[in-house]
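User: Once you have settled down, look closely at the record that follows, taking as long as you need, and be ready to discuss the fold:
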Amino acid sequence: MTTKGIYMTGVINIHKETDYTSHDVVAIVRKLFRQHGTSKVGHTGTLDPDATGVLPICLGRATKFADMLAAADKTYIAEVILGITTNTGDISGEVIQERSVVFNEEAIINAAKSFHVDSRGEYMQVPPMFSAIKIDGKKLYELARAGKEIVRPPRPVVIHDIHVLSFAPSKNTFTIEIKCSKGTYIRTLAEDIGMILGCGATMGALTRTRSGMFEISNAAKLDELKTAADENRLMEYVLALDELLPHQKILLHEEEAVKARNGNAMFLETSDSTVWVCDKKGIIGLFEKDEGKHKVKVMM
């Protein structure tokens, strides 16, 4: 549901370009939508400044769904550069080691495939120091910039699919496509593939082509949004939550609606486990069935 008034609610599928941080994109979108009274804006999963691709941006009450949308699986296309390792895990960092490369296409394919869930189950991945993960209240990248390195506990992630798209032996590079769970660091995956091959590796270019239901094929670049704002067409890019999450809508009478707004569990006559609970004014929230009752998952 998209509304005007206090603020607008919905999601925009942004195609982030290089040299923008995810926070830069949020700030630009907030500025563009200020004319609609929208100040509440948030993204659904950070992309590094050098990375490109899908970055869904939530507006208004849709920011309450940011974590849910961010939890979706992702698809990436990444360039892997063999023979070098860097302090950041990607080519933007400082080179800390160089090694000779024996470019063996079969070995590369096998190394990549070894991370597939069918081969190893969960992939226990150590997050990079240059990341926004907090340990003891400190972001890892802040510690890394201060020249510190600490032990990071590995975290389970899942590589649902991985395959090599192309090889460039003359450049000691290859390109892979990865379908993975939330929280997977492709930089670390590239480094781990390099370790298996014995020559080290770092990540080159990275593009996120999918984040859950959002595809790069219908993502809008910031220049498109700026033009749309000048032409008063921004609404064309706002995707309604109830269209993105097309669950059944249950309309409540006012007395029941008051209880729902107060966060009470509801007995609803539906076999659907997840539903939009509504009243005559609009959507109250997303409710999920638990022990016979529908309970609030996200309140609007």
Q: What stands out?
A: The chain has three domains: 10-71+214-242, 74-211, 247-299.
